[in-house]
Amino acid sequence: MTTAVALDAVPRIRRGVKCTYDQIREAHVVLFPEGVLVLNETAASVVALCDGVRSVGDIAVVLADEYDGVEPEDIASLVARMVERRVVDVDG
Question: pTM score > 0.85 for this model?
């Protein structure tokens, strides 16, 4: 079952989750109690902006300035997958 995340939802990194750059993998990773997620550059940018202040829509606007073709629904989908993996929580 896929969790739906609204564009006005405000994501934040869960307690106990760490975002870092892994020199060995040469990739951004999210470390959490259940495991490790290796992120591509765009996903790492989304997770970095999950600060508990910006909404999903706000994150999409910020990323649209940096990357071509950013769609708010794609950001919402990525955040939803991070919620399912217990990497982020959302308010709203």
Answer: yes
56-66 helix and 72-84 helix, angle to the nearest 10 degrees: 120
Six-digit token pair at 81? Answer: 């997958």
52 conformational bin, left if phi > 0, alpha if psi -120 to 50, beta if neither? left
By DSSP bridging, strand 35-39 and strand 27-32 are antiparallel
**Residues ≥6 apart with Cβ < 8 Å to 80:** 2, 3, 4, 5
**Tens digits of pLDDT across the chain (92 residues):** 567 899 999 999 999 999 999 999 999 999 998 899 999 998 999 999 999 999 999 999 999 999 899 999 999 999 999 999 999 999 86
14 φ/ψ angles, rounded to the nearest 5 degrees: -70, 155
